[in-house]
Amino acid sequence: MSIALLPEGLHFLRPWWLLGLLALPVLALWLRRAARRRSGWQQAVDAHLLPHLLEGGTATRRAWAEWLGLLGAALAVLALAGPSTGKRAQPLWQNRQPLVLALDLSSAMLARDLPPNRLAQVRAKLATLLRERSGGEVALVVFADDAYTVAPLTDDAANVALFLDALAPDVMPADGHQPARAIAWSQRLLQQAGFARGEILLLTDHADAEALAAAARARAAGYTVSALGVGSARGGVFPGPGGLGQARLDAASLRALAAAGGGRYQAMTAGDADLRALGVLQPQSSEGEAAGQMAQVWRDDGFWLLPLVLLCVLPLFRRGVMAAMLLVALGWPSPPAAAQEGAPRGTLWQRADQAAHARRLEGVAAYRRGDYATAIARFSGLPDADSQYDLGNALAQAGRYDEALAAYDRALRLRPGMADAIYNRKLVEAARQRKSPPPASSASGNTSAPRPGSGPPASGQKEDGRGQGSKDAAGKNGAPPPSPAQDRSGAQAAGKMPDGPPQPSQPSPEQALAQAQADAAQRARMQQALQGRPAGGAPMQATPAPRPETAEERERRLANQAWLQRVPDDPGALLRARLQLEARRRAEAGGP
């Protein structure tokens, strides 16, 4: 509702709110009287002496605040009235016609004049209709001797399509052909859903006089009845309850039905030309509005008055309220310093366990990128054994073996017997010894003694009976890391150190080759150790080889398959039971 007040086009979308302005003078009068009664001196001192005895500054400020409050109330009423000074484009609401599909499920649908039979063709046709129909609500009704609802009116056509495989003549409680009841039942569905207009599409092969009368009644009620002919003029044989029957398409009766219902008739074809001719793929609204058409509607500009309302009511705040709010804000407990320093972005408002989990995820991401410094910073300070284990792996990748060993020790103290930490600690300890400088030669001048740990195992050797059972930090969360950087101490420069023992001589080519092989084997073992843990932290298990099937197991499997094959493939069992219950209820009630 809108009224024009000014030639410039000022409108109020909700003008009845303007009646609230009539209450403002009453409110002002009440405030004035309340101000007079606020001071108890008026009852003890004469009125002409009060201005000389009482301080008037406070009363004056209070009066100004009250008048500003009244002005704010008036502005709030105007905002609620919905002032509008312009229009904006808005899509028109389009009420598309609902469609009720009334499908014949009598025994005649098993006729083979449409290969493989009429029922299969109708299922495919309904699937096409439900898939390509753009908008509108749709319902599915089946009929034989009586009509029943399979799916009520809904805008979810995919939900209706779920029932197509269950449609068969054997789901009906009784065989027959009553299209008049199908039309009447479809009309009832539309009326119960509150639609004044709609369309009924009858899928059958013929119509009788009662069906024509029902179509005329539906047309008088505002609903159109169309028909889609199923079958052919030559007909086909079908198995019925009393024996074989002959079913033919009676196009003349269906045309008469469509004429009586104010709809259209089309014979079913292989493509979708019949559906397009019937107009069921692009439903139109009852007003004939085109899709996408825009309309100009008044724009609600009342929210622009809200800042003025806030300014008017600002003096009504009591003195000291803002200071009290500031004190409350300053006294609010801050997060612990440990959670703020180095905490990942977005974790300051999380619980301690959530912040730790977020830090762990960031550490895993950094480990995947090879950014071991960031990974070490994220894993540091996390108290659980897995995090300390991951920290040890990150430190080992960075070449900080002593700190890695300390991290493994902390993990083992938190979880004694942690196999992954024990194994990786051994590898890191071996790498640390290999990285340490060689011992000084003896006084006898023997310079050919090997360094500690320089005797390498074979490249295929496994330590402690392990293969690839060791793990890494990022692997615990599903990411393999790059190979660890193994710093190998090379030969030291020749020459003498001041005040130091003599240095060993350069190794021979055979020693250099042996040393390179040892380093390669050590890197391979470290790589296996730091890439062996799957997601979730559980140790990796080797996939067992498939065991050949025994005769007893094969016999049991074949017996199970035989039992499964005996289970009947009956997708319409549930629908059949539902329709039988509905038929029994109608029989007991004497009608629908």
UniProtKB/TrEMBL annotation:
Record key words, sorted: Membrane, TPR repeat, Transmembrane, Transmembrane helix
Ranges annotated as biased composition (Basic and acidic residues): 549-558
Coiled-coil blocks: none
Gene3D superfamilies (alphabetical): Tetratricopeptide repeat domain, von Willebrand factor, type A domain
Lineage top rank: taxon: Bacteria
Domain VWFA: 98-294
Composition-biased stretches (Low complexity): 448-460, 508-531
Stretches the record annotates as Disordered: 430-572
Transmembrane segments: 12-31
Repeat region (TPR), residues: 385-418
Name used for this protein in its record: Ca-activated chloride channel family protein
